[in-house]
Amino acid sequence: MAKMNLKEYVLIFLVVFGVYISNAYDDFVTDSDNKTYRNLATSGDIVPNTFLSYVLINHQVLYFDKIKGTLKEFQSIKDRTPYFLIKTGDHYYSVYPPLTGLMAIPFFAIPLLFKFIPALNLWDYVLKILVIGRVSASFYAALSSILVYASLTKLSERKNLAALFTFFYAFGTGTWSIASRSLWQHTSSEFFISLLILILLYSKDRPKLIPWMGFISSLAILARPTNIIFIAPLALFVFFKERKYALPFCLSFLPAALFTLIYNHFAFGSALSEGYSARNDVKWSTPLLTGVTGFLISPSRSFLFVSPPLVLSYLALYKIFRTKNFIENHNLLFKFLSAGFLFSLLVFSKWYDWSGANGFGYRMLVDYLPFLIFITFLLLKNIGKRGLTALIIFMLYSVFIQYNAVFNLRSRCSERQNWNINCLITPKTKRFLEANKSYSFLLKDWTKPF
């Protein structure tokens, strides 16, 4: 295990955070000039958590009645209730879990309490809320990068290789184009899963950390309920292998569980309801083979085309199940986690919108990137010079794809582009291909899902 160095963590954070927010001002100016929000708000899904701090600090509530008119600007049909809100009784609540928005409160506190943003009566004030949302999302994504680096150096002395993988995690994956760009559920979910991985590694020698594993797991589920699929096998591991700590592990879920039940009661009319079911949006209509094929080989949604080094995570999963001690002292634990990820992949493959709507790349799998990066690193921790050269080339390609997504595509990719390369190329390249009939076929669908 490499020794911890505070300066390294500070440097990593500053570099990653600095890159993430580097175009926030330019995006603000562009949206201000054009009277739009397209550069700062990557999706309407991020709106409730971004404006939650505003209603909580200014009005001491968790509903959006007073600013519903403003929030309608984030969808094309202005005379309807925004799709990301749901009416319960006399109030309009977010369809999505509020934890991500609550975590952003420290960033909104000073601007709102000191009236730097006195109201939402000017469009620039609305955009400033989005900028603060970008800053807070970037902060947690950068923290997640530090946690990933700490996990990698926990099991390897090759700090340069760990730094390389951290660079890839921060800039060559959806951590940049999704988690850092706006206050998605993915933002907080990815942060908690990266923290969970680190605690898991230390829990082998310090079993008293197991209740903290449960608490962090509960927050990951609170951030994005589908994480329960990934976390459930971890709970089984604790029950079977760490029975002494099974009860504290379960009890550590209580705070998040109680908050969820109370919030659901007020927001959705029932403690056992949640946003998706409340708006009747739970549909598992995609043929399983279609979704799985999309995640594996779609030109705009798969690791293969968007972040090629992550393809090796599938080989790492195979190794975890087939090799007796692939992860020294942690192999059984990671078998359970691997099962959780694979089951999550199958569940998302059945979701009616498996591709993540207009989100860029493999948005639906962004939450699990800390786990996938970790097992891929372990697969390659003894990589030689030639293999390392090839790896760096593919990582740089991945960074270019993310750069294009952030600076040119505004972190968006239409689901109409699932089976072509339009979301991978720059606007200049696309114009060149469109102007040359000999190459224009490259912009058409390469293949169709089975």
UniProtKB/TrEMBL annotation:
Q: Which domain of life is it from?
A: Bacteria
Give the UniProt keywords, A-Z: Membrane, Transmembrane, Transmembrane helix
Look up and give the organism this protein is from.
candidate division WWE3 bacterium RIFCSPLOWO2_01_FULL_41_18
**What's the protein called, per UniProt?**
Glycosyltransferase RgtA/B/C/D-like domain-containing protein
Transmembrane ranges, per UniProt, are 95-114, 126-149, 161-179, 186-203, 209-238, 245-266, 302-320, 332-348, 360-380, 387-407
